[in-house]
Amino acid sequence: MGHEAGNRELIAFRVGRQEFCINVMMVREIRGWTGATELPRTPRYVKGVINLRGAVLPIVDLAQRLGLPGTEPTARNVIIVVQIGHQQIGLLVDAVSDILAASDAEIQVAPDLASDLVKNFVKGLLPVEGRMISLIALDNVLPASELEAA
Predict the structure, then answer these.
(1) N or C: which end of the chain has fewer CB atoms below 10 A?
(2) Has residue 146 got a pLDDT over 70?
(3) What's residue 143's pLDDT?
(4) Which own/partner contact pairs does 138-143 have at CB distance under 8 Å and 24+ positions apart?
(5) What is the pLDDT of residue 67?
(6) What angle do CA 149, 31, 70 make, to 5 degrees?
(7) Residue 2 pLDDT more than 50?
(8) Residue 15 — very low, low, confident or very high, per pLDDT cuts 50/70/90?
(9) b (16+ CB within 10 A) / e for 67-105
């Protein structure tokens, strides 16, 4: 119904002072923060696991994963439950800010001066009302070895 080529719906959220977005098709649900059970010997950005209707859901502190200061979760934080391959993970973010529609043509390439860490995740930049929102690729949020271990 009048979808232009490559039009996608994105969900935008805040982490610290930055805004990011992901493809809404990957999002299973958005829920409030609940305390996670910490696991030994996990990377620092894994906050722990929560029980999601009988399934174990690893919670990733997206700020820490992206090399930003880690999030100290409060009741105001939200968890975005996403599906990556066969695995569901929860992304701990500060707040969900927007649902956006963007065509591929609107998404700009991230500049070369971005750090390698950011390059691993940021697929492009979307200018929205004077702000730049980073489109992140979730495939790299958990390294493959940890996906299998989780």
Answers:
(1) N
(2) no
(3) 62
(4) 138/22, 138/26, 138/82, 138/84, 139/84, 141/60, 141/62, 141/65, 141/84, 141/89, 141/91, 142/58, 142/60, 142/84, 142/87, 142/89
(5) 85
(6) 60
(7) no
(8) very high
(9) ebeebebeeebbbbbbeeeeebbbbbbbeebeebebeee
Q: Pull the structure tokens for residue 125.
A: 């930049």
The residues, ordered by sequence, that sit 6+ positions from 74 with a Cβ below 8 Å of its Cβ are 33
Phi-psi region at 140: left, alpha or beta (left = phi > 0; alpha = psi -120 to 50): alpha
Give the mean pLDDT of 133-148. Answer: 72
Cα–Cα distance measured from residue 90 to residue 80, given in angstroms and rounded to the nearest whole number: 5
- Angstrom distance (rounded) from CA 62 to CA 73: 12
Burial class (CB in 10 A: 0-12, 13-18, 19+), 3: exposed
- The Cα–Cα gap between 150 and 132 comes to 33
Tokens of 106: 């609107």
- 28 forms beta bridges with none
**More confident site: 26 or 113:** 26
Give the separation between CA 77 and CA 91, rounded to whole angstroms: 10
pLDDT category of residue 49 using cuts at 50, 70 and 90: very high
